[in-house]
Structure formats: structure tokens, C-alpha cells
């Protein structure tokens, strides 16, 4: 979240024009989203100018998609020992989910990476459940009965233990009735070895070495 100050009260200064009303509605949605996430933080302001500025900030949050469609989801990845590995961003991309970002502190080599069903990352990360698989397929893009919606291409970690992740899920969407982010959230999982893209249920990719939780409502 990039904005730390937004209040429903701030929208009242923007209602004198049609555009203002539109902004106000967006602001209310943005502020409501912030409130529902329990992360509202705002300093006091007692005049219209300050309120307008605050309202514009709230509208920016909404335009960024905090209230729903189009929003990216930031996912903080941790190792099984609790080390912070970096942040991945999930976003809707042509009906699938793209995952991107820079990670460090991973073992060099090929690793399976998948979208899992539950937004809980308690080591050894079995809490994240199985692969996100809303259409009850088998695992792997090379499996005739596959793939899982949450299957993604392997990532290749360099000798310096870092990797720039740019992968896309087999299917989407990120949100909505059939979306990844449901009542129990979701997770991004990285495994110890490469995914063979065909062995059920997880491509023989071994232990779960990194996890990033996505909370319900993200
Ligand atoms: Cu997995």
C-alpha cells in the first residue's frame, strides 16, 4: 500500500462537480477498502484544502486498484528459517496471473514455483495446502490431464543466489468468484528442485523452501 492517509470525511470537499462526485465515490471505495483491511492511518486536517488533498490521495489508492479489479498484490517471500527473500507482485494478465519481482537468498539452480491454495506460510509450509486447482486437473503443463491453474514455469536462481522472477500461471483469474484470492487467501511457493511439468501433484519439485502468503481480501 502506497498511501497512508485516507478518510471518508475527506471526500466531501470534492462533490461540487460531476468529476468531483466521481472522485468522491472512488475515494469512498478506496477509504472503505483501507478501513476493511485495518490499515487506515491518517493525520488530522481541519480545512477544505487539506481535505481535498487527502481525497485526491484516496482516489489515487482506488485508481491503483486497492478496491478490486486491476490491483497488483505484493507478496513478501520468506525462507523456511524466516529469512526475508524479497517481494513478488501478482497481477492479472490476459486471463492469467503474472508473477514478477527480484528475490535473493535462494539456492542456485532450477526451482519449481507455484500458486498454492491457502494463505498460510508456517514452516515447513505445508500450511499453504496443495496447488491452486479450481478445475480439478492433474499437475503439469506436459501432463495430458493437466495443468493446475497455479502451475508456472521453473525459475533459475543464479550463482549469487538471486533471481528476477517473471512467470505466468497456467490460468487465472486473480480475483472474483473463481479467483485465486479467496476466503482462505493463497500463497506463492518455491520448491527445492525443478518441476518436471508432469508428475502429480507437484512435478517432483521436492521440499517447500520459500513461501509468500496472500491474505484474503488482498
Ligand atoms: Cu508447489
Structural summary, described in words:
By secondary structure, the chain is of the alpha+beta class. The protein folds into 2 domains: 8-63, no CATH class; 73-214, Sandwich (Immunoglobulin-like). 16% of the residues lie in helices and 25% in strands. It contains 2 helices and 9 strands, in the order ααβββββββββ. It has helices spanning 18-36, 48-63, and strands spanning 73-79, 84-93, 96-103, 109-111, 113-116, 155-157, 163-168, 186-191, 208-214. Strands 5-8-9-1-2-3-7 form a 7-stranded antiparallel sheet, with no helix packed on it. A two-stranded antiparallel sheet has the order 4-6. Strand 1 and strand 2 form a beta hairpin. Helix 1 (18-36) packs across helix 2 (48-63). The model is unreliable at 1-67 (pLDDT under 50). It binds copper (II) ion (CU). The site of copper (II) ion has 7 residues, from strand 5 and strand 8.
Backbone CA Rg: 20 Å
Fourth-level CATH superfamily of the largest domain: Superoxide dismutase, copper/zinc binding domain
Percent in strands:
15-25%
Kindly state the percentage of residues in helix: 10-25%
Mean pLDDT: 78
